Each structure stands twice: as structure tokens, then as C-alpha cells.
Amino acid sequence: AGLSAYGLASGTDFDELPDRYKELKTHVFQVFLVSSCHGQLRSLPRLDEVRQLRSWHSDAIVSPGALMKPTVDGWSSPGIVSLLHADPTVLLADYTKVLHASGFRGNPKWEPPETRGQEEPNPVTQNLNGELEFYNDGLGVLFDVDV
Question: Which residues pair with 30 in a beta bridge?
Fold first, then answer.
């Protein structure tokens, strides 16, 4: 933001700058994990499963022993999982697996906002749900919390 403000103040014409990124190299998701309870984290039983996903790139997740509190915003998230992949369908499938491992799924009643036809259809934006609801896939949960 500071560079943009400087450029506008000094009269720089941003349209004259060279195009450095002419094509999309990969698709990226930053998945902010959600906690729904208070308690002490015992373990992360599905973390290895998440780290084996084809699009997994990195994560920053609380460690066992941490005090868990309900997530109310991005700052109170117990962790972030970074997913990167050139194929958006792989990315979407892995995103869904991370949600399921966390005990959530996208709300099936959610509908994407109208795009006014300016962008071509993308499986990520068509299927990415903006709201979450609780979900149990029968495989356990990512966060094992002693409440």
C-alpha cells in the first residue's frame, strides 16, 4: 500500500510498468482452521493425513498442549494450511479434505455471488463455499481437545 501511495503521489503511470506475470502459474488456498470449543489440545491425529495431500505446501498449526478457544476471526484461528497446485480441481478436493478433517464442510445451501459474466468458469470459485457447518466424515477430527 505504501508503494502504491508513493507511486500515485509522485505521478507514476502504473499502466506503463511492464507486465511481469502474464499467466497464472498455480492456484493457492490459505485455509484458516476453525476451533469450536474451549479446552487443551491433546493431539493432532489427522495432521499427517493433511500433510500427505497432493497440494499441501506448508502449515502453521498450534501444538499439543495449547489452550484452544472458539475461533471468532482470523487472529483466533488455531492454524493455517497452505495448499498450492496447478490443477484447480485437485486444489478444491484437497481443500474439502482439510475442511472434513477439521470437522467442517462447506454449507451446501451457499451460492456464489453473481460474476456478471466477466470471468470464465473456474471449478474453485464455482464450488468454494463461503459458510461452514459442522461435519463428521467418520475418520475422527484434526484437533483432539480435552474440554
Answer: 82
Q: Are the beta carbons of 72 and 35 closer than 8 angstroms? A: no
Residue 65 to residues 36, 40, 42, 60, 146: CA-CA distances in angstroms?
A: 17, 6, 6, 15, 10
Spatial separation of the C-alpha atoms in residues 41 and 44, rounded to whole Å? 8
Burial of 4 (0-12, 13-18, 19+ CB in 10 A): exposed
> Whole-model pTM?
0.66
Contacts of 68 (CB under 8 A, 6+ apart): 35, 37, 38, 39, 40, 41, 62, 78, 143, 145
Give residue-wise pLDDT tens across range 10-47: 655 655 655 666 677 788 889 888 888 888 888 888 89
Q: What is the pLDDT of residues 87-115, one digit of tens each?
A: 888 888 898 888 888 877 655 454 445 54
What are residue 27's phi and psi, to 5 degrees?
A: -105, 145
Q: Which residues pair with 41 in a beta bridge?
A: 145
Q: Which residue has the cell 477430527?
A: 141
Question: Across the strands, what pairs with 145?
Answer: 41
User: Following DSSP, what letter does each residue of 95-124 receive, concatenated?
Assistant: HHHHHHHTTEEE-TT--PPP-TT-S---HH
